[in-house]
Structures are given as C-alpha cells and as structure tokens.
TrEMBL record:
Enzyme class, broadest EC rank: oxidoreductase
Active site: 250
Keywords, comma-separated and alphabetical: Metal-binding, NAD, NADP, Oxidation, Oxidoreductase, Potassium
Protein name (record): Betaine-aldehyde dehydrogenase
UniProt cross-references to NCBIfam families, sorted A to Z: BADH, PRK13252.1
Gene Ontology molecular function, alphabetical: betaine-aldehyde dehydrogenase (NAD+) activity; metal ion binding
Length: 484
C-alpha cells in the first residue's frame, strides 16, 4: 500500500510497531479503498512514549530558546521542502482537494513552526520593583510533558499548532492523531528528528479515544490540548481536572454569518462559500447560520446558487477539483441524516442535498433557505457541506439570534457601514470574529472559542502562556522584621 508508514507509532526518535494493537484502517475517501493499515497503541507503547517524552523534556527544557527556535525553524523548512509529498498524504487521508492541501495544511503548519521558533528566544520573565528596594522576578518554565489530541480535518496543521508553541516553551509533546487520519503527524515527527530535536521530544501514538483517555489520565502529563467535538471536550476536560492539569480546548461551533443589505453581494457570497464549503464543510469555525437581511435575500440566493453551479467536484488529486468527498462513510451518513431532518422540519432546499453516484463519500454542497432558529440544522453542528440561510429584519434582532447558541467559536458580519461593523463585532459572543471576510486563521492572531466552543487560544503570542508555568521569585534586600 502506497501510503503505508514504516510503523504505526513514532517514539523516542524512531518508528515503533505495537504487537496486537486494534487495527486502524486508513481509507481514501474518494474511492473507499484501503491505503494503509495501522495498529492502535497497547499500554506498553503508551508507557514508552511517556518515558521518552519525560526524559527528552529535561534536555530540551535546559536548552536556550535560541537553540530550540532554530530546531523549530529547520523543521518548518523541511515541511516546506516536502509540501508536495505531505499534501498528497493529506489528500489521501482526508479526501480534501490537492489545491487546498497544498496551501492550507503542511504549509500552515510550517508557518506555526516558523512563528513560534522565532518567538522561542524572546521568552523571558520580568523584574518587578517592590517596597523598600525589595523586588521579584519571574521565570517562565515549561509545564513538562504535554498531550495533543487531534481531529481529522487538519491532521498535520493541528499537530503543528499544538507542537510549535509547546516545544518553543521547552515542553515535550505526545500527539495522538484521530484514528481516521493518522498518517501525516508521523511525517512531522520524522522532520523534527532530522532538524536536530532530541529524540522523544515529539512522539506520535496512534489509537482511538481510549488511547487519548489513557494519556490524559497519566499523572506524568501536565497539559492536554484537544481539538475535537464538544462531547469529547467535556470528557477530556473532566479527566484533566482530576489531576489539575492545564488544558486548551478547541471544540465545535455553529457560527453565525450576518449579511446586511448594504453589503457587497459578491463578497458576502464569497464569504458564505468560504465559510461553508472549504474542506467539504468540515471546518470547526464555519459560518453555517447565514443570516441575510430580507431586502437582499433573493439576490443573495440567486448569486449563491449560480456560483455553486460551477463547483468542480471530483478526484481530489485533480488540481482543477475544488470540492472533494467527506472524510468517511460515517461522516457522510451523519450529514445525510441532517439533510433529511432539514427537509422534514420544513426548510427549503435550494441547492444540492444528494449523494453523488460514484465511489467514495461525495455529497453535493447543500443550501437550505427559509431556515428557522429552532430547526435542528440551525442548532446543531453538522460538520459537513450544509449551509442554512435565515432571514432577518433588524440589527438588534439578528444579534440576539446570532448569539442564541451554546457555541461561541466564530462569527462574521458583511456590511459597508463601518460603525455598524465594529458595533456588531463587539456584541458577538464568539472568540474569533470577522468583518467582510471569513475563515482566515493566520498564526499571528489568536484563534479559539468562547462558551462551549473552547478554553484557551491557539496561534499568536497568547498560545505561549498556555504552555508556560510562571514562577515568581521574591527577593529581600532588607533586614527582616518578625513580630516575636
Ligand atoms: P472527536 O471529538 O470525535 O475526536 C477528537 C479526538 O479526540 C480524536 O483523536 C478522538 O479519538 C479523541 N478522543 C475521543 N474520545 C476521547 C477521550 N475520551 N479521551 C481522549 N481523547 C478522545 O472529533 P472529530 O475527530 O470527529 O472532529 C470533529 C470535531 O472537531 C468537530 O466538532 C469540530 O468542530 C472540532 N474541531 C474543532 C476545531 C477548533 O479549532 N476549534 C478544529 C477542527 C475540528 P478517535 O476519534 O481516534 O477515537
């Protein structure tokens, strides 16, 4: 099999196979063919990963930030040199079109390694003047062994977004990819070793939820960063709380995208397309509730459907194709069930809605109009190519409805009215907001969710705080007074 890795896991600088692990079959979503077969980690593999990470962290944490940064930036260069190969792996693992994976996966991961590699040398504490010449200073210290757990939509990007700040701060990481897409994080582990990282500083352990749970529960683990659904987030957060561990939670969403009637129609249709159909709709921050002001509803839907008619669905390895299959048969069934619910609850299907008659897990980009707030498709995260268009009349009404959700990952507004744009952004209950654009997530700016969508932030300088323990040292230069 072309994409079969040397072995399932990567521990202490080398590939390792687990004897008798549960089988993990990797399938190309465009055809349903098996492209690799791995084995889930058994307890001895997990133990090896924990030991090697703990030992490596001691060496890595003692290096200077400049040295660590150099390794991260070299790793970024290696990913960029191999971008084509890594993108082909990602396309076969996830089904995402090669035109997407070439620009949004390993290359975005390399940006994170460059960015945090650049910051590693700047991690310093501060001097704090106190009364009578006394003072305190702070020392940013690594947390120790961190666990990263990934979802299946951006396997190597998620691994890099977690590993880069963790390693920059002097931590070690054990990464567990989703069992649906286990391949590319192994290539990241190879690149770290080639770049000169100590063996064991980034280990990859394959498995299902139980392997993730075993890692989270281990007392040697100081921090857990999860990208996944809200139900998994609840379990992982609760398990981490037992050991008072640090957490970052990047979870699901049902984000609103508001289009006011003064907005540029083409731009807002572009925003709705980018916010719903990139990666066949399998993006956490998608603006799946598109609120369109009544006066322009007809024009908006006309342009949207016209532009969707030119989508190129097909073999994701064809560079012309811009819409691929869903990641798995299971995800296809979940999304089809939501489409059936949308129809049953009275939403009006204006585009798509059916599975393609060809091998693989293909579903047309789907748009429902006349969606009401209480419908299932407007409340639950679907994680597939299904856009709900809802009507609104006033700014006050639409903000209340946009915020009326337990999620708070992202939100967007399209308008030409400058004051309204900022007023609306200020009122959104969401961690990541967009004005006249949607779904960009450059490494320089913080990304993450409010409410049930998450805890903590990835990207930006803020991420460094989530991988650092700040030690305070008080110093007296005076005689000490005691009451007796
Ligand atoms: P899941 O929540 O099903 O799984 C996420 C990861 O957690 C997988 O690796 C899974 O293992 C693992 N896992 C499952 N149970 C446990 C457990 N008890 N303890 C530890 N680990 C566990 O999410 P999906 O993979 O289905 O991804 C889709 C979800 O991810 C969507 O809700 C999406 O919104 C969210 N997401 C959020 C992003 C963000 O940045 N906010 C970005 C991308 C996706 P396995 O599946 O192998 O069994």
């Amino acid at each position: 099999m072309k994409f079969q890795p040397t072995a399932s896991h990567f521990i202490n600088g080398e590939y390792l196979e687990s004897a008798n692990g549960k089988a993990i079959d990797v399938v190309y979503p465009a055809t349903g063919e098996k492209i690799a077969s791995l084995q889930a980690a058994t307890p001895d593999v997990i133990e090896k990963a924990l030991r090697s990470a703990a030992a490596a962290q001691k060496k890595w944490g003692a290096m200077t930030g400049t040295e660590r940064g150099r390794v991260l930036r070299r790793t970024a260069d290696i990913l960029r040199e191999r971008n084509r190969e890594l993108s082909e792996i990602e396309t076969h693992d996830t089904g995402k079109p090669i035109q997407e994976t070439l620009v949004a996966d390993a290359s975005a991961g390399a940006d994170a390694l460059d960015y945090f590699g650049g910051l590693a040398a700047s991690l310093t504490g501060e001097y704090i003047a106190l009364a009578n010449g006394d003072f305190a200073y702070t020392i940013p210290e690594p947390l120790g062994v961190c666990v990263g757990i990934g979802a299946w939509n951006y396997p190597i990007q998620i691994a890099c977004l977690k590993a880069a700040p963790a390693l920059a701060c002097g931590n070690a990481m054990i990464f567990k990819p989703s069992d649906t897409t286990p391949l590319s994080p192994l290539k990241l582990a190879e690149a770290f070793v080639e770049a000169g990282a100590p063996k064991g500083i980034f280990n990859v352990v394959q498995g299902f939820g139980d392997v993730g749970a075993a890692l989270v529960a281990d007392p040697r683990v100081a921090k857990v960063s999860l990208t996944g659904s809200v139900p998994t987030g609840r379990k992982v957060y609760a398990a981490a709380a037992e050991g008072m561990k640090h957490v970052t939670m990047e979870l699901g969403g049902k984000s609103p995208l508001i289009v006011f009637d003064d907005a540029d129609i083409e731009n807002s249709v572009s925003g709705a397309i980018l916010g719903n159909f990139f990666s066949s709709g399998q993006v956490c921050s998608n603006g799946t509730r598109v609120f369109v002001q009544k006066r322009i509803k007809g024009a908006f839907l006309d342009r949207l459907c016209t532009r969707l008619a030119s989508v190129k669905i097909g073999d994701p390895m064809d560079p012309e194709v811009n819409f691929g299959p869903l990641v798995s048969q299971r995800q296809l069934e979940i999304v089809k069930a939501y489409i059936a619910k949308g129809l049953a609850e009275g939403a009006r299907l204006v585009h798509g809605g059916t599975q393609l008659e060809r091998p693989g897990f293909y579903l047309q980009p789907t748009v429902f109009a006349d969606v009401r707030d209480e419908m299932t498709i407007a409340r639950e995260e679907i994680f597939g190519p299904v856009m709900s268009v809802l009507d609104f009349e006033t700014e006050e009404e639409v903000i209340a409805r946009a915020n009326s959700t337990e999620f708070g990952l992202a939100a967007g507004v399209f308008t030409h009215d400058l004051t309204r744009a900022h007023r609306v952004a200020r009122q959104f209950e969401a961690g990541t907001c967009y004005i006249n654009t949607y779904n960009v997530a450059p490494v320089e700016a913080p990304f993450g969710g409010s409410k049930l969508s998450g805890v903590g932030r990835e990207n930006s300088k803020l991420a460094l705080q989530h991988y650092t323990d700040m030690k305070t040292v008080y110093v007296s230069v005076n005689e000490l007074q005691a009451p007796y």
